[in-house]
Write a structure and sequence with these properties.
The chain is mainly α. The protein has a domain of 36 residues. It contains three helices and no strands. About 6% of the residues have low confidence. Pfam families: Ovate. One of its GO terms (biological process) is negative regulation of DNA-templated transcription.
């Protein structure tokens, strides 16, 4: 029997991090909240979440998003 791939959907939230004093921290907090709220448990779900952040934010914030995701992933691996 084939197992169906679980599809995770994230709601689009209009968040503005471009005026933040510390956008990496703000993204990290937002990502952590989403991981907890949605119950992200696999790497595939984390990839979908990062794609949503990239798709919903302008290119000048993508570096901050990448740094925040790396930080969240490294903290999750240690625990």
């Amino acid at each position: 029997m084939r197992r169906r791939k679980k599809t995770v959907r994230y709601s689009a939230v209009d968040l503005s991090f471009s005026c933040s004093f510390d956008p990496v921290r703000d993204f990290r907090e937002s990502i952590t909240e989403m991981v907890t709220a949605v119950g992200v448990r696999s790497w595939e779900e984390m990839e979908e979440l990062v794609y949503c952040y990239v798709a919903l934010n302008p290119p000048d914030l993508h570096g901050f998003i990448a740094d925040a995701f790396c930080s969240v992933c490294s903290c999750r691996q240690r625990s």
